[in-house]
Amino acid sequence: MLRVLREVPRNAPLLDIGAGHGLFAVLARGRRVVAVEPDARKVRRLDGIEFVIGFDDVITGTFDAISIIDVLYKIPLDQWDALLMRCRSRLAANGILIIKEQDPTARFKNAWNAIQERGATALGLTLGESFTYEAPAEFLARLKRLGFENVQSKRIDFAYPHPHVMYTARKT
Ligand SMILES: C[S@@+](CC[C@H](N)C(=O)[O-])C[C@H]1O[C@@H](n2cnc3c(N)ncnc32)[C@H](O)[C@@H]1O
Hints:
seven-stranded mixed β-sheet, 27% strand
């Protein structure tokens, strides 16, 4: 998460979608942070954070940065474009979208990730039935098709067993 946090511009108001227990929101504190999470079990009062129960569409206004960390894979693929377009409309000019996912093309690391995630879903720890990853080349093409600019991907999994990949994209 610290590797992802480096991409959030200093003082930029941040919207964190699918915030879970709010860990990234806590790390990003010190600027305006709005965290939104549909699983009410995870939402709690945290100083300096506007923590909201719901899906992203309950949030209004614009943000300089939006983060979506390990959330897309829980959402069916045919809903990704709509979510990403909502993000685009909620970004301020030159705002940055930061997405963290797993790279399914990393065969061995991804096999380990799949085992762990199936266990978490079976135990009901994470909301959502979907388990969808897209190869970085396809996901970058998706972001470009949706009108994002300066679209980039970066593996951030050095010394980790999971194939963490981060995407950044700008609204111009
Ligand atoms: C693996 S957790 C990641 C949580 C947090 N982002 C983190 O990195 O600690 C996935 C989160 O996505 C949330 N989620 C599931 N479906 C969602 C959706 N359609 N929109 C937003 N969040 C969703 C789940 O409730 C869960 O908290």
